[in-house]
Amino acid sequence: MKDVCGLVAVAAIVVGNLGGCGHEKIQGAAGLQHWFGRTGMGPGEFSYPRAAVATADGRVYVVDKAARVQCYTSAGEFLFDWRTPAKDAGKPTGLGLDAAGNVYVADTHYGRVLIYDPRGAFIATLGSFGDGPGQFRLPTDVAVDWEGYIYVSEYGGNDRISKFTPDRRYLFSFGGEGGGDTHLNRPQSLLIERDGSLWVTDACHHRVCRFDANGRWLGAFGNSGSAAGELRFPYGLDSLSDGTLVVTEYGNNRLQRFDQAGRPLGTWGRAGRKLGELAYPWAAVVVDGRRIMVIDSGNNRIQVLDGLARGTWRSP
Fold this sequence. Notes:
four-stranded antiparallel sheet, Neuraminidase, 26 strands, mainly beta
């Protein structure tokens, strides 16, 4: 299997698969509480899920390669779904939420962001294909801060982050020019911190970067590898209630937890098809401050673990 940065993913995946859902005590998978999903196109089924986002009341939206957004309860119960208007050119890779619960879909291969209300009714489009101000090549993710300002990441040549006003007017871009530390190479996921700063998974540089709300560089951690503190194609990003960061590594088939200074605190998962194992995970979303919903993309399921429980994380 070849990843989007043009390198062969090194972790082997064991043949086999699981389907359905389970809420029983999971043996041999540290911290795992339950799981749901299986391969398919029906309710509760996935066709390679790639992004998720959680609301304050615990609902979770998931988008897959069928260009379908599904909404679930935090217990994994299917509620409803909808599809984006086009998919032949490619499928969405990112989701965001605003304070009103509206869902922002990074419609990657159509160079735009689609905005829906919490029930999936279309509201508006942000951006268009191109290289100019307010345009995108391949948008990957969307984050909306508490004041309603919108951040959109993209790759495919621009490799930058653009900021928009709450009424969707373009302000400025950063990360895409000048080279050096601040230059990004496929920024895949965005996370707005409590202080208004922005964490970015810089996937093809194998690191996590931090910028302030004005796009000023604040630092980074990580480098290519599989040891503690190293990353291989970090795609997903979220934070637990204690402020620690959870990074999803597509290339290492695991989650890794870091403190705010970038010090590694432990890992979870390995390559495989069994519970507690992962196949090219794209994302993880934290619900209620501690439960982590891991988007186990290659296994077409979501595994839910307790991110704050003792023994969940393998020590670095």
